[in-house]
């Protein structure tokens, strides 16, 4: 067993109740310190599944400790399967059973209640609740803090989930390389944009330009630059609901607590569906994206969104591109022949074809297949 997963063996005292514990949140908030005018983000809801548990605790002393994160449910059930009192599962899109909720009756008056992504421990005393929670903490999968990567967001029924995708090699660009590939003023623009990106609580930025001109490659470089102070989420456009629906505000609040020391950045690639002028079908998506940027929803989510598109910015919805709406925008154009020659000479390569302008993909993709494909095909960077 990894030493980091082993719970402490020392006894807890009353004085230790006030010491922050890694991965454990004590339910000891002083209500007198809260704003009386502030509405809770989520009102507690009791399901039929929880009724027997809550009925048992109704007339008994009860103290709660809660943990959030990814749990090793297979190991949890292996060790405590005999004490499993209730379970509830659903079928994923791939018809794979997924455990949604579990109730363990661990001993007299002590219960463990798991509901993705939280595990709650109920016990007759605060000391007992903390003791059991620390034992359950061994099943919490702790991500490797030094390993760079991003979180792939997905929806499974009514649940939002993240899967950590490690990046073995991050792209890095010097200021000279940025200006060489993206324009002479790019490093100066990046400095101002990153300042706004990290200072503001929320906002939307749009990177636009033809396919193959380096938008995705630049985002990899941005991740490498900000990986120590930002946490990145990649969101497929068809899962945009996890950003726009108020029912997922609780998920983002938990993510903010989980990554309290970092700022959150969500990346939406090929986001034309949300950026083009609104019609009956897309009106809600465009409005929700704007609300994330500078509306009430954005104030709660504290989320910065970077959207990419192949559409020229003048073709986007006027509400998105009006002055003051975007936190930042940048065109990634095709390079004229002189700029393309500078890139090729700096990298020691030759341009395969004589043409007036080039994408970065056309400069760097030198496989024979690239020359044989019709001109309408685009290879390389998105």
What would you note in describing this structure?
The structure is a single chain. The radius of gyration is 25 Å and the shape is elongated. The chain has 15 helices and 17 strands. The strands form 4 sheets. Strands 10-9-12-13-14-11-15 form a 7-stranded mixed beta sheet, sandwiched between helices. Helix content is 32%, strand content 24%. With 382 residues, it is of the alpha/beta class. A hairpin with a 2-residue loop joins strand 6 and strand 7 (118-123).
What attributes does this structure have?
382 residues; alpha/beta; Rossmann fold; 3 domains; seven-stranded mixed beta sheet; six-stranded antiparallel beta sheet; 15 helices; 32% helix; disordered N terminus; disordered C terminus
Tell me the layout of helices and strands.
Layout lengths: L24 E2 L24 H7 L5 E6 L1 E2 L1 H8 L3 E8 L5 E11 L2 E6 L2 E6 L2 H11 L3 E2 L7 E8 L2 E8 L8 H8 L3 H14 L3 E6 L6 H12 L3 E5 L6 H4 L4 H10 L4 E6 L3 H4 L7 H12 L1 H6 L1 E7 L8 H4 L6 E4 L3 E2 H11 L9 E2 L1 H5 L3 H5 L10
Parallel strand pairs: 9-12, 11-14, 11-15, 12-13, 13-14
Antiparallel strand pairs: 1-2, 2-7, 3-8, 4-5, 5-6, 6-7, 9-10, 16-17
